[in-house]
Write a structure and sequence with these properties.
Largest sheet: 6 strands, mixed
Oligomer: single chain
CATH architecture of the largest domain: 3-Layer(aba) Sandwich
Distance between the termini: 38 Å
Radius of gyration: 20 Å
Structural class: alpha/beta
Strand order of the largest sheet: 7-6-8-5-4-9
Length: 335
């Protein structure tokens, strides 16, 4: 059984409540039966999740807006005179959906198909704490068809809204990516931080920054294997790795690729996605306290369905770890 089939099976074992604040936006832009709506219906029919459609009408009818406004003020430390501004902000479906998760009305939230990543992460930063020592990023999963000769499953870390992360930030993204990969797949992670050179063969500011990032990662005293700088071909092809002095991927290739800049990371995962016909994909957010996922604009029904399954599995783990403020209140399911 492939990775995504296993992920769906895990989600079915304990379905969770997932908020989708873009269903109304999709209905207005593409009409009924858009990819997000189809994915949401499938997820409910398959017993993966129960969906909350966060619309402007729902927010107004809920009678909960004042509670959300006060929570935002408390988190941001804003005085009462700023309340009208906060009211306008929290009235936005994406921000309100993050509030549903943070205040214990939903297990997870998914957005980004019709909203820029910057705005999604701004909503997250407004109401959701980061995991200690972590920064928000995403991990793209690609599972090619069975007869694909290069790899069975590959994850690519994207730095999202941080175009030029420093060494400590790259180390954090590498660590978080390994944790996410292992949590969702059960496979031992092997991460390569990409560069134009491998090992000590190259020179330059970016190479130096990646060396510093690897050292910073090792200083965190984690067991996951992270190596860099490394060229992409050396990371995923053992024969190429044998020709690169000191490259550790001679017997087993990397299964996680970390892009050191937004240019590299974002284009790398999109290249992997579009150059492998028939692959199954998912963009999974990480580094925040509770399950919030940022979709890609190009995600189709299947990719969104996969993200819903991952969001549920992450919620199962968060629940086991006691990260929610208490039992989830199902109030919004009845609206």
């Amino acid at each position: 059984m492939g990775f995504f089939d296993q992920l769906v099976d895990r989600a079915k074992q304990a379905p969770k409540i997932v908020a989708l604040p873009e269903l109304e936006v999709e209905a207005k832009r593409v009409g009924e039966g858009g990819p997000m709506e189809r994915a949401a219906h499938r997820a409910e029919a398959d017993g993966i999740a129960r969906i909350i459609s966060v619309s402007q009408e729902m927010i107004e009818d809920s009678g909960k807006l004042d509670e959300f406004v006060e929570r935002y003020r408390a988190v941001r430390g804003l005085v009462k005179s700023r309340r009208p501004m906060v009211h306008r902000l929290v009235s936005k479906p994406t921000v309100f959906a993050v509030g549903l998760v943070r205040l214990g009305y939903a297990h997870g939230m998914i957005s980004g198909k019709y909203t820029q990543s910057y705005n999604v992460m701004a909503a997250v930063n407004a109401l959701m704490e980061h995991e200690p020592g972590k920064i928000p990023s995403t991990l793209f999963f690609c599972e090619p068809p069975e007869d694909y000769p290069v790899f069975d499953l590959l994850a690519v870390a994207d730095v999202v809204v941080n175009p030029y992360p420093g060494a400590d930030e790259i180390a954090s993204i590498a660590e978080t990516s390994c944790e996410t990969f292992h949590s969702l797949t059960g496979i031992e992670p092997r991460a390569a931080i990409l560069s134009y050179s491998t090992g000590t063969s190259g020179r330059g500011e970016l190479v130096d920054r990646i060396h510093a990032a690897v050292k910073a990662y090792r200083d965190r005293d984690r067991d996951w294997f992270v190596y860099g700088p490394c060229q992409f071909d050396a990371a995923i092809n053992t024969e190429v790795a044998k020709n690169k002095r000191g490259c550790p991927f001679t017997d087993e290739p990397a299964n996680i690729i970390v892009g050191p800049t937004l240019d590299v990371a974002n284009n790398m995962y999109k290249a992997v996605q579009w150059l492998i016909p028939g692959c199954r994909t998912m963009l999974c957010s990480q580094g925040v306290a509770l399950p919030v996922d940022d979709l890609s604009r190009g995600d189709d029904e299947q990719a969104i369905y996969n993200v819903i399954a991952a969001n549920v599995v992450k919620a199962q783990t968060a629940e086991e770890q006691g990260k929610y403020p208490g039992p989830i209140d199902e109030f919004f399911l009845d609206l």
